Each structure stands twice: as structure tokens, then as C-alpha cells.
Amino acid sequence: MAYSGKHISSSFDLALTSLQNDVLMMASLTERLFRNAVDGLVQRNTDICNRVVADDEEIDVLEKEVDRAGIDTLIRFHPVATDLRRVISQMKLSANLERVADQSVAIARRAKRLNAQPVCPEISWLDPILQHALAQFHDSLRAFVDQDTQLSLGLKPRDRELDAIISRTTEKLIAAMTLSPDRIHSLMDLIFVARSLERIGDHAASIGEDAFWIDRAEDIRHTFRKKEE
Length: 229
Description:
Layout: H1 5-42, H2 46-77, H3 81-115, H4 127-146, H5 149-179, H6 184-216, H7 223-228
Helix pairs in contact: 1-2, 1-3, 1-4, 2-3, 3-6, 4-5, 4-6, 5-6
């Protein structure tokens, strides 16, 4: 039975829409997971932390579904050019979201350890990092969904700013350890939280690069590093 080009195009659009809907749901859940991990840390709420750990399974299931649907779409329709980038980018976004979710779980688990100890005043040092990372991740999703290339281009410099803040804060936390060796475990937990936030920033920058690639078919990975060198 012969299929018209219109029929094939319509079927591809349906498959892509279904794939995009799964990724959008995954993005929404991942952002909620990240925000909950931050709330569990800041509010010293272990119940919220436990919810983060439990909800991660749903994101893992969605990632597998996106991979399956994406591969199926590539095999069935053999998309090229823009259509190919649209499918591949959804799969790449899914992978980044899963890793952000994993880092959110890592933050929640560190928060649980901190919640079991006396309040660590130095946790306030993480406030600028938390706000920066939350905003950067949110904007990376906006850039991807809206195909906002200007917003995409701004994410890598913002990630470098985040790295610099984390580096300065880590140095302060290490110095605090020498003054308060009895609190070394809590201070180390804060350092590991900062490292998880740094990785989330890296994934947000990657999402921005993929958003730019969809629209312009241009790979801007490592571009800023080469300019600086």
C-alpha cells in the first residue's frame, strides 16, 4: 500500500508532538524536583527531601519512554535537516533532565544529613548559588521551548558566573573547617551540595547549546573557551 507524502508528514508530526509532550512533562517534573530539593535544604524539611528521592523514579521512567519513542521515530521516518535536529534534541534534553534530577536527589540526600544535625549557619552562604542555579535552569528550559537563541547564548556566561561563585564559597567553607573541625561533616555536605549545583548549571548550559542548535544548526559547544584562549 502506497503512502502519500502528506500522510507520512502528518504521521511524523503526530509522533514528534507525542515525543515533545513527554519531554515537556519530564521538564516540568524535573524543575519541580529541583525546587523541592532546594526547599528541603533551606527549610530543613526532611519530608520534602524524601519526596524528591521517591519522585525521581517517575523521571527515570519518562527518560526511557523518550528514548524508545525517539529511536522509533528515527527508524520509521528517517527525518533530515530540521526534523532530524528536532528529534535528536528532544532526546538530548531528556538525558540532561535525568541528570539534573539525579543531582537534585543528591542535594536532597545531603539535606537529610544536614537536617539531622544542629543548624549550620554557613548554609546561608549557598543562597546566591541556589538562586542563580534555579534561575539558570529555568531559563534553559525557556530557551529550549521558545527557541530563544539570545537567551540560549547567555546561558554559558551565566554558568561561568555560577562556577566562580561556587569556587569562592567552597574556599570559604574549607576555611571554616579549620576553625570548626567539630562541624567538618556538615560543612563537607554543603560543599557537595554546591558541587551538585555546579553540575546542574553545566546541564543548563548544555540545554541552551542544544536549543541554539535546533534553530541555527550551529554547534556552539566550547565556543566561549576557544574565544578566551
